[in-house]
Amino acid sequence: MLDNVIKVLPENVANQIAAGEVIHRPSSVVKELIENSLDAGAKNIKIIIRDAGKTLIQVIDDGIGMSEIDARLCFERHATSKVTTINDLYSISTYGFRGEALASIAAVAQVKLITKREIDNIGTCVEIHGSHFIEQKPYNCNKGTIVSVSNLFYNVPARRRFLKNETIEFKHIVDEFLRVSIPNPDVAFSLFHNDKEIYNLPQATTKQRLIHIFGNNYNSELLEVKIESPFVTISGYVGKPSASKKRGSHQFFFVNGRYIKHGLFYKAICKAYGSLLPENSQPIYFIFFTVDPKNIDVNIHPTKTEVLFSNEPTIAQLLELSVKKSIATGVTITSIDFDVEPILRNPIIYSENTESTNNNIPKLRYDKKEEWENFISIKSTSKIPENITDLSLNFSTNNEKLEYEKSSNFLYLKNQYIITNIKSGLIIIDQGKAHFRINYDSLKEKILTGNLYIEKLLLPYEIEITNEEFPIFNENLENFESIGIKFKKITTNKYLIESKPFFIDAKNLLPTIKETLENCTYYENFDFESIFEKFLISLSKSISIKNGQRLYYEEIDSLINTLFTTSNPEFTPDGKKIFYILSIEEIEKLLK
User: Fold this and answer.
1) Could you tell me if residue 445 is inside a domain?
2) How confident is the model at residue 580 (pLDDT cuts 50, 70, 90)?
3) Which of 132, 133, 223, 524 could form a disulfide with 330 if both were Cys (CB 3.0 to 4.6 A apart)?
4) Residue 206's Cα: distance from chain center in Å?
5) Burial of 78 (0-12, 13-18, 19+ CB in 10 A)
6) Contacting residues for 403 by C-beta, under 8 A, at least 6 apart
7) Do residue 559 and residue 573 come from a single domain?
8) In this structure, are 478 and 496 located in the same domain?
9) Residue 2 falls within a domain, yes or no?
């Protein structure tokens, strides 16, 4: 007869399994401990981190504290003061309620808890390592609670090996810190990492809290949102269209103070902006929903970030309406007819014989011809054959080499598309994307070959680094200096740019650095090669010809010549197609 195979797991193993559902990385610990402090009524919360939480996570609060018995019981699984009956699950108004956080943390770390209530003469200290009780003893301390979590995953080495580098793990900690500090402006928060103060947020209003976190420019960029109904109150702020971000950063939904993610509500906000957002940009928003706890279910996701609402479609409509109203009252919109083209000296069809009728009009569309030629020349040089048929190209499409003819005619469509003939048919080139590729290759060659002339600025430019961006910025200061961009620290978050490569205009450099840092803040790979690549892409795009910017024959001719000497003329550095070839066969098929 076979032996029984089902066994009850040992408590420490069961706790480690439970910990895997709750504690994914150091940021999970930070989240659970801060939420406990908030539930305890704390008004001052201090978080101390070492080595991105791998060595130490310590949360100090001035909350109500715990009794000697509660200090021991809180480490038991499913031990909670928030839920007594099944009905309590349908009216949750606190952050923690499952009673698994401290038990899960203690299962995979060395934990020391020091706590004291105001009515007690002396506090208590409990120490637990890997679910094993070490000791409990009286402790002289102030009212409140201190939880110290050391050597996270010390007894689960496989989990510890899966942790990312320090920059990435600390980024996740900052994310959780923001998710609890934003909806609780009446609580003072401070965050330290390796003995360095990262955030110091005093008690404030919601808007003041956002400005303290994201910078003074938010004072003028935020539009207030407010609407009330019998079943929900929606409040908060959205950004002006001009404040939009390339990535989905600075997007926060909260319900009853709890951070959530919600696809339907996100779509409602995007719909409210309509076509006002710049291309490839996303809105910023900080939206707070206040609803009866009985009308939401916060227990459908282990991390409690997914919430089920009653009346979700109606709430989405109310959100869209309130955001539309805020944008309409806060933004002045100018009506522009993009189909109207300016009166130009040259016709749409250009040829080699086209002559200028007004020599006073510059051929180049930039402020200074010299700056254009110094930065990147799109006119033929000794390195670029005058006749494009002389080029021996390794680049191919459809497994055949492209064979180009020197064309005397260009069809110029919408000040964006250049259409000219080649031996196999017609080629349609997007001028902005073509120039993007040219600028990228030129910039990369100059920097990688050390062909840099560093310009010391007589009037340094000021740049403000947000707390989110600071870890990446600080880690790459020397790398930026290696390509000629030197910074001087003024205050914790403000720097001066003292020098730059002479061929980069400061007006392009400042937004490019900010965009690079912002993008990398939400990027998992932080090696400088990746950051450098993003920097070059952003900078190259910022100085490239824009759609709708008129070029003349000589410029078009040189643009095409130069494009096909680049490393990859078919695609932009960010992977978009630059041109399309319409073959003779396709044309004949279309006309049949």
Assistant:
1) no
2) very high
3) 223
4) 21
5) exposed
6) 389, 422, 423, 424
7) yes
8) yes
9) no
Q: What angle do CA 274, 279, 285 make, to 5 degrees?
A: 55
Question: Which residue in 315, 303, 44, 33 sits closest to 149, CA to CA?
Answer: 33
**What tens digit of pLDDT does each residue of 126-138 get?**
999 998 999 999 9
pLDDT at 360 over 80: no
What is the Cα–Cα distance from 218 to 204, expressed in whole angstroms? Answer: 15
The enclosing domain of 473 has a CATH number of 3.30.1370.100
Task: Tally DSSP H helices, then E strands, for the chain.
Answer: 18, 25
Q: From CA 280, how far away is CA 131, in angstroms rounded? A: 49
Domain, as residue range, for 522: 454-501+506-542
Q: Would the pTM of this model clear 0.70, i.e. be above it?
A: no
d(CA 12, CA 28): 20
The CATH code of the domain that includes 252 is 3.30.230.10
Q: How many domains does the chain have?
A: 4
Residues 234 and 117 in one domain: no
| Number of Cβ atoms within 10 Å of the Cβ of 312 | 14
The verdict on residue 408 lying in a domain is: yes
Residues 58 and 122 in one domain: yes
The gap from C-alpha 531 to its chain's centroid, in whole angstroms, comes to 13
What DSSP element (H or E) covers 57? Answer: strand 56-61
Q: What confidence tens digit (pLDDT) does each residue in 415-470 have?
A: 899 998 888 889 999 999 999 999 899 888 887 777 777 888 888 888 888 777 77
Structure tokens at 319: 């959100």
Instruction: Report the alpha-carbon distance of residue 167 to residue 283 in Å, rounded.
Output: 26
Can you tell me the distance from the alpha carbon of 115 to that of 587, in angstroms, rounded to the nearest whole number?
80
> Of 70, 58, 68, which is closest to residue 137 (Cα–Cα)?
68
In a domain, 516, yes or no: yes
